[in-house]
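Changelog note: in this version the structure field was regenerated for every chain. One regenerated record is shown below for reference.
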Amino acid sequence: MPLNEKAVQEIVQEVMAKMQIAQAPTDKHGIFRDMNDAIEAARKADEVVRRMSMDQREKIISCLRQKIHENAEILARMGVDETGMGNVGDKILKHHLVADKTPGTEDITTTAWSGDRGLTLVEMGPFGVIGAITPCTNPSETVLCNTIGMLAGGNTVVFNPHPAAVKTTIYAINLVNEASLEAGGPDNIACTVEKPTLETSAVMMQHPLIQLIAATGGPGVVTAVLKSGRRGIGAGAGNPPALVDETADIRKAAQDIVNGCTFDNNLPCIAEKEIVAVSSIVDELMHYLLTENDCYLASKEEQDKLTEVVLAGGRLNRKCVGRDARTLLGMIGVDAPSNIRCIVFEGPKEHPLITTELMMPILGIVRARDFDDAVEQAVWLEHGNRHSAHIHSKNVDNITKYAKAIDTAILVKNAPSYAAIGFGGEGFCTFTIASRTGEGLTSASTFTKRRRCVMSDSLCIR
C-alpha cells in the first residue's frame, strides 16, 4: 500500500540517520568529492523513493517545476557564462519548456489483460539508481528534464556532467534536492561529484548498483556507455538536413529554417544543420533568407576562412560551438551588421561546413536536381545517425518517401526544428533523444522496467 506522509517522513529520518557519507564541504545538496559516495547517497535516497506513492513523487516534481520557472534566468545566464555557448533568451525559454512539458508520473501506466484464465498486469517499475552523463550544450536543461522523468519512474540518479558545465549542473542538482526536501522527500535524489572526469565516469559506469546508464553527448560518450556492460540509453550525434521541395511555401520555409537553426545558436542536436533544396527553388529560397531573415551570404573566400577557423586542423573548434553568427564572422575579420543571425552559402554536400555537424548558425545549401536526388543527398548528409530531419513540402507522397528513407527518431514537417520538442508543436519535451539505441524521445516510462504480474483463474469478473 502507498505510504502516508507521516510514514514517508519517518523513513526519511531513519535513512538520514543511517547515512555516514562524507559530503563535500559545500552548502549544495547532492554534491560529493567521490563518485562512490555519490552513488551510495543516491542508493540511500532510493530506499525512500521506491516506497513513495505516485502522488508523493508527483508532489516533488511539482515543486521542482516551480523552482525551474523561478530559476530559469539564473540557470540560463550561468550556462552561457560558464560554457560560452548559446544565448540567454533562448535558454530561458528552454528551461520554461522543461518545467511545463516534461512528462511526470502520468507517463507511468499499466497494461492489463482480463479473461477466462484470470488477470495479468504489466507495470512499469524502477531500475533504482540510474547513471547519467550530460553535455555542456544543454547542461541544466538535460539534468532537470532527466531527473523529472527518472524520479517519476521511481528512480534516483547520479550524474557525471561535462567538466565545462559543472557549476551550472551543480546548481541544477541542488535545486532538485531542495525541491525534494521541501515536498517531504529525501535529500540526494540526484547526486554528482565536485570534479567530474573520465575517471569518475568510468567508476559510475562500472559500479554494481548502476544497471542503467543514460548518456547524452557525442558519439564517443555513447560508444563508451554501450561497451560498459550495462543497459545504455544513447543520445548521440546528428546532422539534421532540412529538405525543401518545389511545393513548399518557400517564404515560410526560409523563416522556419532560420528560426530553428539560430535557436540557442544552433546548440540543440535537433536543429537544422544544412539545407537540401531542389534546384528550381534554390534562388527563391536564398532570396528570402537574405532579404527577410537576416542571413549573411558568405563568399568563397569567406567560406574558406570559416573552414580554417571552425574546423581548425580538421577538427571542430570548440571555441566556435554555440557562438552567434556575428561572432563567427568577426573571427575571420568580417564586421557584420548587428542584425545578422545566420551565415549561408551554396556548396556541394561534401563541403566540410555542410557535411560536419557544427552546432553553430552556419547553413550550407545543397542544390538537388529533383526531389529524389534531394532525398538521396539528405540521407547521405544525415550520416545514418537516425536522429532528426526536417522537410518543407505540401506533397504528402514526397513527405512519406522522405520519412521512410531518412528513418530518423524525429521528422519535422513545415515548422522550425524546435517544434519537435513541444515548442510550437504538439508533444512532450525531452533533451535526451536516444536515436542510436532506439528509444527515441525519452520520458519517464523510458526509465522503467516492464514487470508482468499474473493471477491465474482469479479476478476476472466478466
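Spot check on this record: The chain has two domains: 5-236+440-454, 241-425. The first helix runs from residue 5 to 18.
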